[in-house]
Amino acid sequence: MSRRLHIEVFRYNPLDPNSEPHMQSFYVNEYDSMTLFIALNIIRDEQDPTLQFDFCCRAGICGSCGMVINGRPGLACHTQTRDLPDHIVLHPLPVFKLIGDLSVDTGTWFRDAGARIEAWVHNDHEQFDPKAEEVRMENDLANEIFELDRCIECGCCVSACGTARMREDFLGATSIARVARFYLDPRDERNEENYYQVIGNDQGVFGCMGLLGCEDVCPKHIPLQDQLGIMRRMLAIHSVKGILPKRVLEKLQHKGCCHESH
Amino acid sequence: MDASTLTLHVRKNGAGVGRLDVMQMLSGVLLIVFLWAHLMLVSSVLISPKLMNAIAWFFETTYMAQVGGPLIGLLIFAHFLLAARKMPWRAQETNAFVKHSVMMHHKDTWLWLAQVGTALLILVMAATHMWVVLTDLPITAAKSAARIQSGTWLPFYLILLPLAEIHVGIGFYRIGVKYGYITKANRKWYQRLENYMMGGFITIGLLTLIRFLFLTV
């Protein structure tokens, strides 16, 4: 027997001075393998064409349909309604600018974060030769980099972060994992001091309070907290170089999981 | 600092924040070790009040109590100052964090609020505890028992004990998480360890308090 889902959606249009933030209830008949994304489309097609929410790929790749589902940030297209109770409450992702209803602008935030962490390969090469053969790297290393490159910038980890919600300038797990990706990449020639300058502060690794929200909601299951830990340890050790004995620091650096700088 | 950086218009590269973070972590680790050792030493009264007296005598004749006690007080204060950099002092921050915790119903997020709350209470209560003990040296089992049996000291310690153990237990776990020693792979195991350790230390502390309560003065 299929369920009748009660979907409660946050409604507000910040551009309309007459719009009042409120919750609106919709009812949808559930069917097998229904995702939240499908349910929202049914609502928009059949009940209220003014409902705003973002989607693009339907397959957890574009990162557009991030929203707060019963309190937890997640992707609508990745969420099967059978995994949820009859009553589903939907809010827009916090932290990001609200466009309307469930739609937020993650692009501006990520653009700013990318610029702040300088998310591009840095080197001192005089010029780039587009005809030259690509530099080879070990398969294991390529896989390690790819593991972090799987981030789809949906913003769920940022919305699930207590620090990011308290402090607007916090870079969030996604940005730190992005820096970790460049730290792994041999084509990026930045040294520890260079990385320290971009994330060695309270807006970066040292602002993280280890709340683990990022890792627990990431729809791509990227080990975000592990990356934060690795980068924080690397930069904390960098900050006390010359104070603590080298041998102790080396031992701390290599205990447990770690990236080696290539 | 020099004259050219006084304006803060030009950022000077420095290791500052990283060092503050390391100091916060190190002071936390020292206090965790201290608190566990402290509890084990006091709980020696469970074996025999004479043993506890002997341990107290050792720490006083070597001046470790007289010098170490105030130093621990300073360490607690320094740790508070370092960790308080992250506390939600502005009403707007508290509001955002509480709403976030309610929204997420996520244990690790709530644990941080527990850590903030316990920190503020411990700061006051630990100071009171240290003042009472260190201004009335030497420490003996009989004097400790007399204190527990008089006035409002029993409820005071019944509150301070779990507060301190919870704060230290969460702190131990969170340091591991923040520095990448507790990872996705072993997190569940460490969570269980943290719970057992907190439960174990609170039990030992409660037994010690009960022993003091029934010790003939």
Automatic annotation (TrEMBL), chain A:
One of its GO terms (biological process) is respiratory electron transport chain. One of its GO terms (molecular function) is metal ion binding. InterPro entries: 2Fe-2S_ferredoxin-like_sf (IPR036010), 2Fe2S_fd_BS (IPR006058), 4Fe4S_Fe-S-bd (IPR017896), 4Fe4S_Fe_S_CS (IPR017900), Beta-grasp_dom_sf (IPR012675), Helical_ferredxn (IPR009051), SDH/FRD_Iron-Sulfur (IPR050573), Succ_DH/fum_Rdtase_Fe-S (IPR004489). The keyword Iron-sulfur applies. Keywords: 2Fe-2S, 3Fe-4S, 4Fe-4S, Iron, Iron-sulfur, Metal-binding, Oxidoreductase, Tricarboxylic acid cycle. Its cofactor is [4Fe-4S] cluster; [3Fe-4S] cluster; [2Fe-2S] cluster. Part of an enzyme complex containing three subunits: a flavoprotein (frdA), an iron-sulfur protein (frdB), and diheme cytochrome b (frdC). This is succinate dehydrogenase. It comes from Halodesulfovibrio spirochaetisodalis. The lineage of its organism: Bacteria, Pseudomonadati, Thermodesulfobacteriota, Desulfovibrionia, Desulfovibrionales.
UniProtKB/TrEMBL annotation, chain B:
Heme b binds at H38, H79, H129, H167. It is found in: Membrane. Pfam families: Sdh_cyt (PF01127). GO terms for biological process: tricarboxylic acid cycle. Keywords: Heme, Iron, Membrane, Metal-binding, Transmembrane, Transmembrane helix. The keyword RNA-binding does not apply. The chain crosses the membrane at residues 29-47, 67-84, 110-134, 154-175, 196-214. Its main location: membrane. GO terms for molecular function: metal ion binding. The keyword Iron applies. It comes from the Bacteria. GO terms for cellular component: membrane. This is Fumarate reductase.
